[in-house]
Each structure stands twice: as C-alpha cells, then as structure tokens.
Specification:
By secondary structure, the protein is of the alpha/beta class. The protein has three domains: about 180 residues, no CATH class; about 210 residues, no CATH class; about 140 residues, no CATH class. It has a six-stranded mixed beta sheet with strand order 1-8-3-4-2-7, with helices on both faces. A two-stranded antiparallel sheet has the order 5-6. Strand 3 and strand 4 form a beta hairpin. Helix 9 runs antiparallel to helix 10. About 0% of the residues have low confidence.
Length: about 575
Amino acid sequence: MDYKPSTIGELFDSKISFIIPVYQRAYSWDKANWSVFFEDIVEQLHRSNGYSYGNILLETIDVSKYEVIDGQQRLTTLIIFMRSLINVLREKGCDENEIEDMENDFIIRKGIKKLRPVDYDCACFDTIIIQNSTYDVKSDSQKKYQDCKDYFINELKKLDLETLEKIKKIVSETKINRLELQGKKESALMFELQNNRGKDLTNLEKLKSYFMYETYVNSLTEETESNVETISNYFKEIYKIIYDIKGLDEDSILIYHCNAYLNAAFSYRNLDDIKKEYKKTINKVQWIQDFSRELSISFNSLKLLESNKSNYYNRLKSIRGEKSLPAFVYPFIIKGYKFFKSDSNELDILFHLMEILTFRYYLIGSRAELNSRLSDILRDFNGNVILLRDSLKKKLNDSWYWSDTRIKDFLNGWMYENPVLHYLLWQYEDSLQNKGYQIGNCIIENEQIEHISPQNPPEGEILASGYDVNQENKYNDDFLEKELNCIGNLMLISGSHNASIGNKPFEEKLKTYKSNPILKQQAEIPDFLDAYSKVWKTEHIERRKNAILRFAIPRWSFDSVIVE
C-alpha cells in the first residue's frame, strides 16, 4: 500500500480519473451532507491553518485509473461542487481561460472524465455534471446529482466574485491523502476493514463488503476476477432497484430474504446469523454466489409487488390503511414470487391467505407471539398453496390464542378502536353492494366510526331519545360492556355527517340514514328494527351484529380460500 499525501489541486491536475466499482452503492449524500461540506469550505475563508479532506482509499488499475474503495461520496460531491462553482463563476464574468482550466482539472480533460460513477448512473452523471445539461432522472441517486448541483449553485450565487475566487483557491490547496492499493486481494482486505470500523453503513453494505472479501480470499487465483464480478453484478442489480421499493428499507428486506431462505425461518436478525450459516459450508464461493443471486431475486420480487394490481393484494394493503404489512408476510411473498413468478392465480391465493392471516393478527393483537407458530410453515412452503392453507388453519387452531374460536370471540366483543374495524366495515359494505344494493363508488371524506347508540345519550325519556337507557337516562352496565362498542352498534360515516347528527335522538339520526345513504350499511338500518319502532334497542344491535358476523366469520376463515 502506497501512502501519497497531496492537495486536491495536485491530485486533479493530471490525467488521473476515478472509477466507482460496480459493487459500490449509488450516490446517497443529501442536503445535510452537502450543507456540512459547504460550511466547512466557507469557514476556511476566515482561517489560515489549511483544510484537510481526509483519506481516500484507491485501487490502482493503471497509472491514470483508480477504483475508489472508500471515499466515493466525498469525491462525487467534490466534483459536483466544482461543476457548480464553474457555472457560477462563468455567470459572474470570470475569465473564460481560467474556467476552461478548471473544467480540464475537475470535470473532463481531452475526453477523459474525472469520475465514472456506478454503471447505471453514468448517463445521468455525464449529462448533468460533465455536459452540464438536463436529464430525465429515474432514481433517487440520479435525483441527488441534480439536487446537489442546484443546492451548491444557489449557495454560491449568494457570494461575490472575489469570495468565489478565494473558495476556488481553498479547494485547490485542501490536503488529501491517497492510499493506493495493489491487487484485488489487498483491496478486498482493506474494503472489509474500512467497513468494520464503526462507519454508519447498512447491514446490506456490510454484507456486500464481507462477501467481496470472502470471495477474494477463497477464490482460485485464475478465478478471482470473474468470481468477484459475479458478486458485484448481483449487488449492482440490487442497488438499481432499492429506491423503487417504497416503505421498506434495504436491511428489512435482507431480513425477510433470510427468513424465507435460511433454515431457521424467522430467527434471522443480523449479519452474524448469516455468517454462521456461511461458515458451515464447504464451497464458500458458490454459497456466496447462490445467496447473492437469490437476494437480488428477492429485491426484484418486492419491486414487482409495488406494481401488483390484484384485488387480493389491494385488500391486504388496505387492512391497515396502506401502512406496511406485518413483517411475517414478506417472506411468504418473496417465496411466492419465486415459485409462481407471473402466475396471477397462484399469487392471488397466496395474497388471500396472507390477507386472512393479517386480519386475524391485527384483530386479536400482538400480545401473543405469532412468528414461532409460522416458522415451520414458512420453512416448508414450497409453492403448494393447498398445503399452505391447511397448515395455517391447523397450526393456528392448535393454539387457543389464534384459534377460530378466539377469532369469533373478538368479532363478537368490543370492536371500537380495533385496528381492523374500518377495514371490516368496508368489506361488509362491499358484500352488501354486491348483493344488488349498488349505490356506486363510495368515497367518504374524513371517514369516521359512528356509534348508532351514542356514547353519551341525549337527555330525555327512552321514547324521546330513542335509545336503550334506564330511568336515569344512562345505559346499564351490561349494555356498556356488551352492546355500546360492539360491531352491531358501529357504522362507517363521513366526518361531516357524524358531526351533524352527534348524539341526537335516534329518530332524527334514522332520517339522515334514509335520506342520504352514502353507504348501504346506513340504508339497511331500518331492516333491523321492529315495525314502526322508534327506539334503537339491545335486540336491534344484536340483530345487526349477527348479520355482520354471518358475513365476517366465513369471510376470514381459511376455509374461504378455494383452490381449484
């Protein structure tokens, strides 16, 4: 390893060019990083002790080409900054010969680009930074090139020409240390060491560095280059699609992948767990290749999931209002895409099973641990959805807490503020409208839950209020415990409608249900009343509850999943 202290000006005033290897991730610095970078430079305007840019770790390719092992974010930002400075200096009338010299030093010299980023961002970087033009960005990293350039230009425009000239001088005189490595194995060792020194890296990045190093170390000499390229290409594919996957971070996906494919199912949580599995193997290079290939497939599967338009998948997402799915769902989906690929029917069955499982999970709550009960099922899932359905049904019924009986108890009990209440009532609404009571597409502004019997009954006698109150105009304890917050007394309603009726007498509420029934569940309330009844009593709540239960219990039974 050669240690070469210099200045940034000396480093760039040559034919040297930097290459970001394919196994590195894309540009990721954001405004917080750019701000610190800019402030550090501006502070030097008032200091005389010089500025240091730290170390960069390079692998020598030839006398003028270096792969960047560590320092790519800083180098990329530096070059974007210099492009921004050049643009502002030109706008403020700086000598064109001076500007041309800066472009030769920091941007491109005789057709040789100073920096080549990861392959999938090359065209974007070349257009925005080197050609100084516009580009239709396709990813988060590409957008960051443009945003970084815009940020620096906006900040630099606030400064006068004299200050900008000083900044140019500060950057040129900034100290930087080059650590040049010779050969792939030396580079791999240093890459691994750098990534284990407390840097703020994701587990995915640490795993990549570990795999690169282990591949170098365990490969035959003549196979080293091709083996590392294989691993590099798998991670290249992963980093291409990371930013297309919304709502999931890369380390979570790594865990879901391990849960899906390593033998202990849901027990994997960190890199040590993966390394333990790896160290058991004889053909270590092959194991790394197989794992990396499957990992890239898992990332791609979750990218495909983003665009899935299946009704069953939409239902699954809707249980918690488009929030992330519970963690146990993703390994099943990853396996499903591997087995079924584009088979929409098989995927729909899987989504249906996961929707039922997720509904029951949120209905009951997470006080009892579910993953351990699913671990064997996940491990044994080999694409047979019939077996998966039957295994889920048996396993959950073997446990009292997750049994069908327990599901019925919850549906039959206190449902107000239950996480699945809104979803349940929307599904009930869908069932009503599909029976022929079509009202049209339903959109409710500021969706709320209406207590038909209000939480606080209005003053007056029973007939005047229309609710099941006692002589003191209060609900009895049995009603409060069993009826007030059960599903039979709860209904979807718009916020404005709810505010307008409040706790008015039932007869007034009923008129609004009948006059403007946005939902069928509002229009059907009279169906549960006795003839000419003006009171919403316990027996009416029970009738409505039983009607909803007749829908809900079979709807979220595993027996409802029909596999043809």
